[in-house]
Amino acid sequence: MTFAQNYTNVTNQLSQQINPVDIRVWFLIPYFFGIALTIIIISIWQPKFEGTYEYNDCSNARKVNGKVVDTDDCEKKEGNLAKRNAFIILILFLIIPAIFGGLGYKLGFYIANPKLGAGIYASGLFFQGVRGK
Questions:
Q1: In the chain, where do the E strands start and end?
Q2: How do residues 67-124 score in pLDDT, each as one tens digit?
Q3: In-domain check, residue 7
Q4: pTM, full prediction
Q5: Residue 103 belongs to what domain range?
Q6: Is residue 3 a part of any domain in this protein?
């Protein structure tokens, strides 16, 4: 038996032992919880969509190792508050629910497949030990 055939047999046996995870329970419920949390965060924040804000544009300033040395060369500019806050809200609605959904699915996978989850965790610990992090 060649290495490739042996590897194929092992992976086929492992794939038959994996229990499927119900995506409605382990992904969608945490995802909607993340959406609710995002709505709560935005309602507490109460972003404004009128007016402008000032910031320093230091693109033409003298830099050493990527850090601005002379802040006198920075230009004062105004930005649109509505664009900035809309962008922040869009990012919040994409990132927070995705994090909750992904963590929920990972938790469900580890609960449905405890031996495989322990193996994944142990291999992560092993590689962290080898790398020294």
A1: 52-57, 63-64, 67-68, 75-80
A2: 777 777 788 889 999 999 999 999 999 999 999 999 999 999 999 999 888 988 999 9
A3: no
A4: 0.72
A5: 21-131
A6: no
pLDDT per residue as tens digits for the range 31-78: 999 999 999 999 999 999 899 999 888 877 777 777 777 777 788 889
Residue 126 lies in a domain: yes
- Give a yes or no: residue 2 inside a domain: no
Q: Count H helices, E strands: the chain?
A: 5, 4
Domain count, the chain: 1
Residues whose CB falls within 8 Å of the CB of residue 109, separated by 6 or more in sequence, listed in order: 21, 26, 116, 117
The encoded tokens of residue 3 equal: 């290495």
d(Cα 8, Cα 64) in Å, to the nearest integer?
54
User: Contact, 25 vs 108, CB < 8 A?
Assistant: yes
